[in-house]
């Protein structure tokens, strides 16, 4: 086993990885053997046959790794720059793991090793399309999620098209580089940057200059030219003399920088990082006139208390919604109505029109605008613009073809459209969106009204968290707050919030747990009762779980094809989230880990909060029910509880 001469081996498992890359395994090409080593997902959690997702090194140009769904690219690592892949700033020097990349005539390969024999790590491509690195924690005996991708909107391949820069720290995330403007202004205005940007002025090969873009992910590099011996000055001259060259960069950023990479094609899939995050310098070819422009041409972010997103005039929305006709009404809530609209170029939108008589809605409206305009995640609903005209206040959102989750989950004629695979995907998507709000966004945000009607579904049944009217921003050190005005929806509220007005990220975790159990069972927590034992949904799930019959709660409409262990894992996660005491509930990073791995050891849940039952004839003290089959951003009825 210590023989390093590969010619003495007929076959070895490390040359044929499945869905996992272990320390010492190589990802890439071996010119001597002709092997192309890459990892491919399982078909499903229970089916190890070849799935749809692959993580594979492309050796053309300046090599980089792509995550593909069949032949469609989902994510790109960026090229290796001597320290890390350009698009993976988290690959920093670590006492736990070291990374290496070899590029020579014999092989082009990436690998990693652990620096301590007591440390175990693995890189996994999941059947869901997630790329995840785990570290084994011996003391707690769990696989800890160390890194994952894609993790945000800017990780999506070519999110901002050609000559666009994606930046999650700005709103909207897509900006045109200096000297460029949107190719399709209408789509760009609606926050669809995939069409990219076009150059405003003309290049003049003899007089062009180069603009430095700092801390960026290098462009897609499959057609780039690489010379590892050339210095940066030589690289600049090479690019200047080649009139088709659009930009250049160092190939290696260590030791002050070395090597040369030149791009002679359109620049795709670039993103901006904060200075502390990573990235590297890229030199963009621009007309000489653009070098004199001091104002940051691609920055449109507003300052102070401005709303920070496009303002639409009321005439445009009147035309789009046919004067807010009842035929276009798709939802009704406590703060107003929601209408489907079609803008001039055929873009479908949803318009939330704030009720003029709703005095409560003014603050919530401003709150929602300021919050969502700065949030960018694939599992959050996208705010496209707003309208303020005299007493009229409206929010314009992306349109969700499949309406809200509750319009499927609690409707007998539609619940069968949610098979188990779809339900599990929805649970995981909501968890990722909530993790972003609690931990990964620019702010720490408590949603305070997570429920089935506030989960919207796009045409592919991807979940989007909506309705941020009740949300609160926490400071960096803040973990808990108190309010005398209890808002939200009974049945989803945590005990400490409903009774004492205390809310924290653990309040959202409780609501998430209720939602998980509703998705698994197809039953509402609010209004659920068992005639004989007077249990609500949480207590009923707890009872079955303790009796070892947790699978009985699974909705028959979910179908016969499901993983029993996956269902039980979701039930256990749901019960862990709805435990009575906040300190017992996991945070969302732990929840995401528990949902994404079959190997994580999970604690046993304790008694859930709100296990009081009720008889069907008991007085219902809840407010009148609202229509919860809203297509977009169903607004919440505020509960005011004098205490």
UniProtKB/TrEMBL annotation:
It is found in: Cell membrane. It is a single-pass type I membrane protein. Signal peptide: none annotated. Residues 324-600 form the Protein kinase domain. Keywords: ATP-binding, Cell membrane, Disulfide bond, EGF-like domain, Glycoprotein, Kinase, Lectin, Membrane, Nucleotide-binding, Receptor, Serine/threonine-protein kinase, Signal, Transferase, Transmembrane, Transmembrane helix. GO terms for molecular function: ATP binding; carbohydrate binding; protein serine/threonine kinase activity. This is non-specific serine/threonine protein kinase. CDD domains: PAN_AP_plant (cd01098), STKc_IRAK (cd14066). GO terms for cellular component: plasma membrane. It comes from the Eukaryota. ATP binds at residue 352. SMART domains: PAN_AP, S_TKc. Residues 150-186 form the EGF-like domain. PROSITE patterns: EGF_3 (PS50026), PAN (PS50948), PROTEIN_KINASE_ATP (PS00107), PROTEIN_KINASE_DOM (PS50011), PROTEIN_KINASE_ST (PS00108). Its EC number is 2.7.11.1. Residues 205-287 form the Apple domain. The keyword Cell membrane applies. It catalyses: L-seryl-[protein] + ATP = O-phospho-L-seryl-[protein] + ADP + H(+); L-threonyl-[protein] + ATP = O-phospho-L-threonyl-[protein] + ADP + H(+). GO terms for biological process: immune response; recognition of pollen; signal transduction.
